[in-house]
Amino acid sequence: MNSKIKEIIIGATALALLGGTLAIIKSSPKTSYNLSSGVDSVTTDLQENFSAISTEQKNISQIIVENPNGGFTMLRDNSDQPYIKELEEISTSSLDRLLNTACKINMEELVEEKPDNLIKYGFENPNATVNITLQDKTTITFLVGSLSPEAGHYYLLSENNVYLIEEDLIKIFMGNYLSFVDLTLLSAPDNQDDYSFDSLTVKRNDWDFECEFENDPEQGEDNGMISAQVMTQPIFAYLNPAVSTDVTHGFWGLTADSAVAVNPSKQDLKKYGLDKPFCITKFIADGKEYTLNIGNSEQDGYFCTFSGVDGKNCIYKIDSNKLKWATFQPNELLIGLMTWNFIYDVSEISIDCPNEGIGVDFTLEGDHNAQTLNSVWFENNKLDVENFKDFYQYLISCPTDEIYFDKPNSNQSYLTVTIKAKDKTDKIEFFKQTDRRFAVKLNSKTSYIVCSAWVERFIENIDAAEKNKNIISTY
Q1: Residue from 199, 177, 178, 307 nearest 254 by CA
Q2: Rounded to whole angstroms, what are the CA distances from 456 to 359, 435, 447, 474?
């Protein structure tokens, strides 16, 4: 719709500026017609090819649209830049499409000249009334009536004549100011390598904890981690980038699907569940904080507000597929390893299990540069390196499916494993909860629940590792 209006306005402006000379085949004399409903007269130039106006964007001074959806007003500021009056404090998308539409409006077919009955074409309650003012104060007005029987076409009233016009050419005039809101919440850098990250915090009403993510303090080429980010709350855990990236870096390039309110009132926020958001996500990148509040859901989306970027004081509707913060569970993002150290960086593994009479120390020698494990010793016995790799693999693959951060039932650990690696020591403690479950502390922080079958198999594998017997990976 907007493009059509602009075309009409531009044409009228060109007439005024060029002394009425237009590149047209033939023009009809101007006439006026008043609708019984009191609508202002509609005046424009008729042409045999039904092209009313042809001009440039700069000649359009103002566009006022009234329609059942609320309409909008386009004005120009002191710098002659176009803006939407209802969105003065809100970031808007480009108005080029609106202006291009208003610059040239071509009607497809003349339906009836100066009809006596305008009601049958839907002009008693038009879908849009468009007033375009040019820089020389010339005003062009036209009405968009009802949908015609010819698919994809509407009736348009101009200079008391009824035309057919394609829907795509006047559709922009049947919307309101919300259709011009910029839906990009946080622009993404051109290069994904420039997607910076400091931290992310997610708080949800269905959790009694907060989920926090930070950069891995040991990140770098020597840390052995695939993801540069780790979970730090409610537990410390390594992330699987295949599933965690949408959570940790999902703010970059985030776009809304529509805007439903601008400069929302308290009543607006309450209506959409944003007075007490279901989910609050804070993202910090390059020292700048952004906050996404997620409220009520509707069909396949959520109502949201966003802060941290100027001009975003709106309530947006965003597809749920873009809002992983509202749906993910912490355990879904984990890489599936209790801890992570390259075996060639490990110097010692100590295991204590007093109830089973176990107290062993394995000594390892590796070459980080060559990325090889050269030898493993237990007491004075040199062990099979490949067999011990299987043992180590079983250890670090301790299941992390079920996170747990309450205090263990017992104060005394049943099993303790200490892994000393280059510049790092990890301590894993197992506390018996029930006959079938163990709570696990990683570096003194309760983190997981592990089934007793895994623990029992691990104890058996300790003996197998000592004696160079095959390690069993099932449990």
Answers
A1: 307
A2: 16, 11, 19, 11
Contact 217, 231 (CB under 8 A): no
Phi, psi for residue 59 in degrees, rounded to 5: -85, -10
Residue whose C-alpha is closest to residue 5's, from 70, 99, 71: 99
| Tokens (6 digits) for 401 | 């499916």
Sheet containing strand 437-442, strands side by side = 381-383, 372-378, 358-367, 346-353, 415-421, 424-432, 437-442, 445-451, 402-403
Tens of pLDDT, residue by residue over 97-116, are 999 999 888 898 999 999 99
pLDDT at position 221:
47
Closest residue by Cα to residue 341 from 452, 401, 427: 427
Q: Is residue 474 part of a domain?
A: no
Residue 306 CB partners (closer than 8 Å, separation 6+): 185, 186, 254, 290, 291, 292, 293, 312, 314, 316
Question: What band does 358 get if pLDDT is binned at 50, 70 and 90?
Answer: very high
Give domain status of residue 338, yes or no: no
Q: Domain of 64?
A: 2-180
DSSP-H helix ranges across 114-233: 167-170
Shared-domain flag, residues 127 and 214: no
Position 42 scores a pLDDT of 35
pLDDT at 194 over 90: no
Residue 166, sorted as left (phi over 0), alpha (psi -120 to 50) or beta, turns out to be: beta
